[in-house]
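Model it.
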Amino acid sequence: MNIGTGNGRIKALLILLIMALSAGGSLYAQTMEDWETIRVGLDTVWVLLAAFLVFFMQAGFGMVEAGFIRAKNTANILTKNFLDFCMASIAFFILGYGLMFGNGNGFIGFSGFFMIGAESGADVPLYAFWLFQAAFVGAAATIVAGGMAERMKFPAYLIYSFIVSALVYPVIGHWVWGGGWLAELNFADFAGSAVVHTTGGVAALVGTIILGPRTGKYRSDGKPNVLGSHNIPIAALGVFILWFGWFGFNPGSSLGVGDGSLIALVAINTNLAAAAGAIGAMITIWIKVGKPDLSLIMNGALAGLVAITAPCAFVSPVSAIIIGGIGGFLVVVATLGLDDLKIDDPVGAFPVHGVNGMWGAISVGLFGRQSLGLTGDGLLFGGGFSQLGIQLLGTVTIAVFVFISMGIVFLVLKKTIGLRVSAMEEYRGLDIGEHGVESYNGFQIIE
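Modeled.
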């Protein structure tokens, strides 16, 4: 064998090696592209599943509110819950998404209206992200129905529902989740104690103050009369549906599966806080009145869920139990406090969502951990007042903004088309007066 022949063989081997490496590189690149496609697909399925669970919470809200009010207003409250999601979907599609996630400034977005040129706010397709966010809008809007139940005009409610979904909620969402000024301050609200629940709860508070209490709710001496819940089993079913749906609400806010550790932490924290909230409310009302009132126990579970919604990704399970337990205590104190102030909130919308939405957002600054993704440790873990101060600033600002903006909306509605039904309609029930139907045909339900 001569040298020339040997060189030729070496060149041939080098060419084959280069070809093999090139093919391997292409195969590796193709494999990585396939894995990325699978990852995005899995995250998309997860976000959509969470969106479906949050949508199902509308049924939970409907059952809770229907069960806690009188039978003669059942169809009315369910109609409001049904239309809330309809109004929220259209309003958020037309205007809300652009204001919340569009390019703009620290206060508001200015692009993406009618979803034209809109971009996804997560590493999932735009429409999946939109549906998840739209379900949150519907949840925030429907909170108000319970606080203003049994005496609000249906047309006025529809206008409120559209405005809060198109304007008020998206502005707050932009501040926190759309890259706005609170996001720049590192205000932390993982799944919406402030954005969703404080917004809905404070709107319910200002609405019920302007609307006034139901006829017969308070005696001449100021003491409250019991306008009893007509169906506690339905209300209990609603609470269980909401508890179930919250496993989409909170873990789904991860907007991706990852290695599963984050969604697992959020899920266990969500469950523990709900359980602790129910127990905390039970103990508090038992001590206060001598009986473990089921309606307040159920609201205690919801209070725990609301409270843990902001800190669920940033706290330990032990902290979640404490946060939820305090939430259960607060919901009882706030419920009794509203009656002392003669503010009639039939289902406890403000005590559950307003008070505990604020408590949940503030608790991040107390119990949050840097090791779990927060920018710094909370006060109780040696982080000082920095994060707590940010949480207080954001929470108070959101509450004040909602109180003022929704106060203006309700006052304008009151002065124009009217906010409250007539005394006769209230007596006969809104099912007949507003909708011309009876929820329980053949039963005498006027009281």
